[in-house]
Amino acid sequence: xxTILSRRKALQGLGATGAAMLLDPFAAAATNxxxxxxxxKIPSTGEKLPVVGLGSWQQFDVGTSKEDRSELRDVLSxxxxxxxxxxxxxxxYGRAEQVIGDLTSELKLNDQFFFATKVWTSGxxxxxxxxxxxxxxxxxxxxxxxxxxxxxxxxxxxxxxxxWKAQGKIRYIGITHYTDSAHSxxxxxxxxxxxxxxxxxxxxxSRNAETSLLNVAKDNNVAVLINEPFEQGALFRAVKGKQxxxxxxxxxxxxxxxxxxxxxxxxxAVTCVIPGTSDVKHLADNLGAAAGKLxxxxxxxMMVKFVExx
Length: 310
Description:
- Helix content is about 40%, strand content about 15%.
- It is α/β, with parallel strands linked by helices.
- α4 runs parallel beside α12 (about 280-285).
- It is globular, with a radius of gyration of 19 Å.
- It holds the Pfam family Aldo_ket_red.
């Protein structure tokens, strides 16, 4: 995976406060996130989830000191306060599972979130051992969603996940990937109706999923989690110093982050998008995309046209 160009880094170098506000006008526009967030149903059960969640790759791979974890503690507290639910992790993400488990327990919020993590190894017993370790690290007796990370040994793990679901150790089964080249394989598995969730990459500039994968998931009643919504920060670099189009306000879009996220969640097949952040302001900004009016089909076309012209 490539190194993330974070929103924070994208802001660096703009210099004046006014320029920074132009790229990410959080202080002026994203402070009042409505209490009621837009929710979508998980097709297999009807359970509802807010359409914007939280990823943890890199941001939550930190040490054990209070100083290392203070910002993340604040992020999780604010997320709960604003109504966010979905937190996505993986053994691949270093100490992320442990940090999430520790902090949500300290905050007494462990049971308030929808925990999604992954199995990322080869072999049946190795998978079982790793998933048990995830339960321990995240301080749960049951996980909401267990996903097979990047389809690694997916046929072996799928059998185990079905057993675990029947035993009540997990609530939902999922599969994931982060590249366009994997979309066709994800489609095949989704069509087999073996999973409750599918997670993949999708953004306003990376729209391969619109070709068929999103519709396949919708047609087969599989929930969709979206990763790489900001293209690892590249989208913020693309709009550096650029103003939002005037018509964005018609869809309650106040920042570039909300512009990018609202494009994604306005697709009816998307259940939840999971941008990662370790910044409370950015967390609130992101959740702002889960409120207000969503772009319609005509607005989505205008959004793409605007970004492609940059």
